Amino acid sequence: PQDLERYLAGRTLILLSNREPYEHVRSEDASAEDGIALRRPPGGLVSALDPTMQRTRGTWVAWGSGSADRETAGEDGRLMVPPECPSYTLRRVWLDDADVEGYYLGFANSALWPLCHLLLQHYETRAEHWARYHAVNARFADAVAEEVARAPGDAVVWIQDYHFAAAPAMVRERLAATGQKAFIHQFWHIPFPPPDILRLLPTEAQQGVLRGMLGNDLLEFHTERYAMNFMDCVAALVPDVQMRREHRRIHFEGREVHVGAFPISIDVARYEGLARRAEAARRAEQLRVRYGANGATLGVSVDRIDYTKGIPERLRALDQLFEEAPEMRECLTFLVVATPSRSELASYKALEDEVLASVAAINARWSTPEWTPIVLFHENIGAEELAAIYRAGDLCLVSSLQDGMNLVAKEFVACNVDEQGVLVLSRLTGAAEEIEGAVLINPFNVDGVVAGLREAIAMPQAQRRARMRAMRARLRRATIFDWLASILARVDELAPPAAEPLPR
Ligand code: ADQ
């Protein structure tokens, strides 16, 4: 990853994301100083960006939540991180309960999230939610503009995700008002819907989202399809724009907005390394003996409990499989890793109850004295254990109803070091457009999922190995560091040349 810095020579990166890379939390732990411990949220994005931020000494702006976060930052919300080697600035922005309710749980997660995933039955719109989202985006834009003013050299502002659709135009406005310049770009981690769906937003919010995003110089999506959907929405809903679709370029308010596909990935070497440890081999064997004894197939799935992931649909398919294929009983055990998520929202809580109830019902229906069809790990699992679970799996089922990319599919491939596993993957994920060698399914079609599972279980060893090898070879050539490099290279191409390299 070293050579990433060359793209940033002479420029300072100002990142904006909802989640922060370092979080302070109250802790009873003996090692916690003054009862406060440091937590590094898991996730590929932080692990890819943190080293780059450390080496280029940029600023990361994010939501500071909780009193321990407040106590450890200065008056202005700033602190240097990481604590053991302070090298870049974390700027925390404070939100109150009404902000979280309207901006995060409200507009971001009850309007944009379901609409972008085409799951209209979960869509809810309230004027107050949009108003808060707009106000909170403005507050983050203020913080970003202040950090641009402090940054040495030219600034590159990089905004993450659907929490900040309105922010890019706001940052641009603030910089223009103070005569500052920066290259502004945004990565959108979830799908982008076609115009008929975006039309379901009230006009003010719909215009706020599209015009906000058009404040970017470059917009990055996982796939060409999402990028095209965005261009279609702009063409249909924003007057006075010209576009060159073939060049992925929109002419808006006298500037060019570039759009592109940059499929995200994982730290492949890290996952593979975790899965190759002797401890992971031992744990995988233990799981296989415990749950996949006597040659039974061990299936695995890993998700946050979210209605986009198709967990009830997956359970329905398993139930139907045991019903129609008695020979599968006692021959297939499924390890379902499902961690609660966004539980403050009623629809997520209801889904969690539904998942628990249907696992219990399937187990009550099919269990025998020697066999339990579904084993539920209803918690967040550490990376080491997760790698062992992936390694143990004969098959991994990803059944998302719609998913921007889906990193679980890539993690399973990276961890399947014994090259005996089959990936059964929903066509409705970004990953399905990139990964060749998976058994593709449509989770809405339960019969098709059952057929896909039967195909995976029956697949001859040689074919499994050949497919898994091909998927692994391809994944190694497209890691999260390649993703980051391709985005920074594109920024380097589009941004005005830096005045001169910065001393680091
Ligand atoms: P998510 O919707 O969170 O991400 P995904 O890409 O699958 O979906 O990433 C989930 C991550 O959480 C994976 O790294 C997985 O290992 C981890 N995880 C899930 N359940 C877990 C558990 N029980 N214990 C431990 N870890 C667990 C959003 C978009 C995706 C897009 C990513 C990145 O919705 O489509 O791929 O951002 O852009």
TrEMBL record:
A biological-process GO annotation: trehalose biosynthetic process
Pfam family, one: Glyco_transf_20
Origin superkingdom: Bacteria
Cited InterPro entries: Glyco_trans_20
GO function terms (MF aspect): alpha,alpha-trehalose-phosphate synthase (UDP-forming) activity
Gene3D superfamilies, alphabetized: Glycogen Phosphorylase B (3.40.50.2000)
Family affiliation: Belongs to the glycosyltransferase 20 family.
Database matches in PANTHER family: BCDNA.GH08860, TREHALOSE-6-PHOSPHATE SYNTHASE
Protein's name in the database: Trehalose-phosphate synthase
Protein source organism: Roseisolibacter agri
